[in-house]
Structure formats: C-alpha cells, structure tokens
C-alpha cells in the first residue's frame, strides 16, 4: 500500500487553514468534475480530490492522519503501525455523499470503521437534539479480561483551534473492564459522547477493546495460546512442569514421546465466559548449548546411543 499525501493532492501546505482547504477543494472539484472536465483522468482525479477533502476538512480525521503519517512521503510503501489509532476519540458520522466503495485502500486502512461510525447529528439553532455518539479503540492487558479491572483511560479528541487548525484535546476517564471481555467487544459509557443541543441529552461513548501485545500469550477469540519450551529429555521421557497462564501458574503433565508442535489443551483456562475459552500449550524443544567439553561429550554420547536420523522421512 502506498502513502497518499492529501495535502499534495489539494495543493495546500500542511498548516493550511480550514478555509484554505475548502477553497482548494472547490477549485479542483470544478476543474475535474467528470460532467464538466475534458481531462482524460478527470474521474480518477475527482475521486482523489474528494477523498483528500473528506480527511482534511474533518478535524478528527485530519489530526489522526497527521499523527500517523508524520514524516511519510507520497507514494512510499506504508502500513499503519499496530494500534496506531488506540486512544483516538472519533464522533459518529458517515462520509458526506462519499460511499465506502469510493475510498482507496489507504483511506480504509486508517478510517474504515471510524468514517462509518454512524449517522451524524444535525445542528439547528433552537432545536432540542441528542449529542453524537463517540467511538474510540482502547488497549487493555489480557490479565484484565481474566480478573476484571478498574482502569484510567486517556483519550485524544481532535478539535479546531481559533485559527482553524486541528489540535488534540485530551481527557481521562475511569473505566471498569468487566471480567471475560473479548477483543472486539464494545463498552458503552452512557452520556460520555458529544454534548446535546439545547436540552438534548449527551451522546454515548463506545470503547472498542483490544489487547496489548503480550510477551507470552496469543489470543484467538476466548482461547489463549502459549508456547512452552521443553528440554529434550522432558519431551522424550515425559515430565510435570509449571505453565504460566494469565491467571497464574498451573502444573501440566507432559506425555512421553511428545514432539515439537504438539498442542495440549487446558479446558476452561482461556478467557472467562459462558463457556470459558481454553488455553492451548504448544510444545517446543529447547536444546542445551554445546559450549563446554562436558556438553559436547554428552551430545556425542547421545548421538551414539540414539542412532537417530531426523531426515529419514525425506528419503524416497
């Protein structure tokens, strides 16, 4: 995927005001409108201009775009860093007359869900209307899903300053993480979204839960996976070993003749729920180093005693 420089597309500097962006878009949209332009690439350019305008005219999208693309060059290979959008708070609002099918892969990778968060709420003087719902992705620890937790979560909301430039407004909320929550689930915080109009109620804030990367565990739905290194003799002869889980260590019996890659299932030791997930232990063989004379002699003796060819199955 290639990085798209929306400022370059509209021909404005990165510190352009909202009025500058609006003026540049209107000028280019007239020039490349497919019904009016004779340019051979008018339709493609019109879509590019519309997409650039959709991002840069919106303070939320513009601030997020500036943050994730800082230092990137137009046309360079680009992938958003994992979890780049965690902590960004977006208000609900569908793109203005710009269907999702018209967006580039680059746009979808950044704003696919946020841009289609929900229908925007109109604003008219003298009306009583509810506030917009807001959406944000937050990262929590896997252990929080096992035990539940109370966490302080910081969110960044892009807003316009007095000069029409996007700036980050931060707030911190105390959030209860319920036991058994899964990645992809949403927490609803009533009344924490956008303010209502007149006496209208505030909107809600929906937090999409994702897990922080863990040094030991991987997650698949409610199931949790851990790689367990074994000494060769533990795999060959069997053993009882301690296995870490997000909820503390458990004792696991390793059957004799266990091969690398074998999966052992600990039922109900995954993320709690009804039913709870399982914990899968994937066996790996860790070889002792042969860096000493004693170690090398031990490997020589093992080689003689085992009479083992690991590549025998590869022969015709």
Please give a quick description of this structure.
By secondary structure, this protein is of the alpha+beta class. It has helices at residues 6-10, 18-32, 42-56, 59-68, 105-115, 142-147, 232-237, 293-306, and strands at residues 89-91, 134-140, 149-160, 166-177, 186-189, 205-211, 217-220, 223-230, 239-243, 250-254, 263-266, 279-285.
Write the layout of secondary structure elements.
Layout: H1 6-10, H2 18-32, H3 42-56, H4 59-68, E1 89-91, H5 105-115, E2 134-140, H6 142-147, E3 149-160, E4 166-177, E5 186-189, E6 205-211, E7 217-220, E8 223-230, H7 232-237, E9 239-243, E10 250-254, E11 263-266, E12 279-285, H8 293-306
Parallel strand pairs: 2-6, 8-12
Antiparallel strand pairs: 1-2, 3-4, 5-6, 7-8, 9-10, 11-12
């Amino acid at each position: 995927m290639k990085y798209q420089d929306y400022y370059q597309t509209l021909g404005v500097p990165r510190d352009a005001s909202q009025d500058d962006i609006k003026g540049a878009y209107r000028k280019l949209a007239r020039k490349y409108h497919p019904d009016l332009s004779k340019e051979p690439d008018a339709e493609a350019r019109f879509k590019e201009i519309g997409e650039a305008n959709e991002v840069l005219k919106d303070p939320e999208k513009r601030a997020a775009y500036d943050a994730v693309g800082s230092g990137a060059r137009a046309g360079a290979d680009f992938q958003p860093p994992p979890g780049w959008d965690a902590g960004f708070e977006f208000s609900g609002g569908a793109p203005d007359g710009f269907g999702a099918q018209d967006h580039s892969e680059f746009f979808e990778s950044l704003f696919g869900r946020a841009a289609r968060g929900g229908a925007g709420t109109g604003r008219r003087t003298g009306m009583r209307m509810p506030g917009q719902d807001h959406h944000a992705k937050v990262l929590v620890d896997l252990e929080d899903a096992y035990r539940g937790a109370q966490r302080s979560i910081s969110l960044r909301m892009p807003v316009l300053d007095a000069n029409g430039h996007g700036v980050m407004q931060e707030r911190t909320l105390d959030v209860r993480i319920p036991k058994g929550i899964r990645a992809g689930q949403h927490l609803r915080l009533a009344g924490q979204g956008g303010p209502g109009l007149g006496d209208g109620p505030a909107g809600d804030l929906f937090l999409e839960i994702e897990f922080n990367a863990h040094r030991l565990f991987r997650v698949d739905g409610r199931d949790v996976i851990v790689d367990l290194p074994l000494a060769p003799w533990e795999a060959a002869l069997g053993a009882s070993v301690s296995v870490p889980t997000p909820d503390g260590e458990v004792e696991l019996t390793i059957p004799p003749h266990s091969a690398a890659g074998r999966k052992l299932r600990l039922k109900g030791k995954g993320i709690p729920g009804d039913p709870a997930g399982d914990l899968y232990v994937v066996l790996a063989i860790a070889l002792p180093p042969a860096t000493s004379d004693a170690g090398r002699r031990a490997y020589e003796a093992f080689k003689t005693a085992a009479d083992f060819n690991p590549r025998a199955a590869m022969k015709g």
